[in-house]
Design a protein that fits this description.
Blueprint lengths: L1 H29 L2 E9 L2 E13 L4 E12 L7 E13 L4 E4 L6 E5 L4 E4 L2 E8 L6
Length: 135
Amino acid sequence: MKWKDNLRRLKLSLFLSYKNALQEKAMLMCMPGIYRRNWNEGNCRIIEKVMIKKISDLGDIYKIIQVTWKGNCFDNTLLHKQKVDKWIACYDNSTKQLEEVGGGERKCSFFPERLLLLLSGATYKRIKSLNSLVK
């Protein structure tokens, strides 16, 4: 009954391949969005948002915009933009990360089940999905 064992192995292999493909698709679908983190530094409230938008289906290329605002913790004054950083990244299938194009060092990792983004050692929580805005 060696052929039955081979058939079981083949079925298991096909099932695992299908499962991996679904997980990969879920990862790619979850990445576009707006992510946010807040923290206090002295008497300043700092808010950082990262927007990830897919700009090419062909090469899995994404535009990333990171914006930092600073405001006063005590009187809730209007926050003003401190810094805007824009870069282009490509999804690397082997590392499962977005990597900066053009020799940059920045990389983004994702935890789709928890809606988290890791960028430069900081953790961001997704506040909005951009899947409907692709292109």
